[in-house]
């Protein structure tokens, strides 16, 4: 969460087919709670919420947040 109490968003753009995005829960045990598959060129905008504490990206993707930009995969 940011200082204004609003939820943080991230944008994920698939740079290849089959990029997997996995949402992980908060709490005593971290669990998968949501998965999505993206094909090359598809974009997903994800949000950190009271239920989502982490987002895992598998595959080659561009990830953009208010803190900067990074590329995942090889």
Q: Radius of gyration, Cα only, in angstroms?
A: 12 Å
What structural category characterises the helix and strand content? mainly beta
Low-pLDDT runs: none
Numbering strands along the chain, what is their spatial order in the largest sheet? 4-1-6-7
Percent of residues in β-strands: over 45%
Helix share of residues? under 10%
Reported CATH architecture: Sandwich
At the first level of CATH, what is the class?
A: Mainly Beta
CATH superfamily: TRAP-like
Instruction: Kindly give the count of domains.
Output: 1
Cα distance spanning the termini: 30 Å
GO molecular function, one term: RNA binding
Family: Belongs to the MtrB family.
Keywords: RNA-binding, Transcription, Transcription regulation
GO biological process, one term: DNA-templated transcription termination
Plain-language structure description:
One of its GO terms (biological process) is regulation of DNA-templated transcription. InterPro entries: MtrB, Trp_RNA-bd_attenuator-like_dom, Trp_RNA-bd_attenuator_dom. This is Transcription attenuation protein MtrB. GO terms for molecular function: RNA binding. It is a single chain. This protein has strands at 9-14, 19-25, 32-38, 43-47, 52-58, 61-65, 68-72. The protein is an all-beta fold and 74 residues long. The chain has a single domain (9-61), classed as Immunoglobulin-like, CATH 2.60.40. The strands form two sheets. Strands 4-1-6-7 form a four-stranded antiparallel sheet, with no helix packed on it. Strands 3-2-5 form a three-stranded antiparallel sheet, with no helix packed on it. It starts with 8 loop residues before the first strand and ends with a strand. The mean pLDDT is 86.
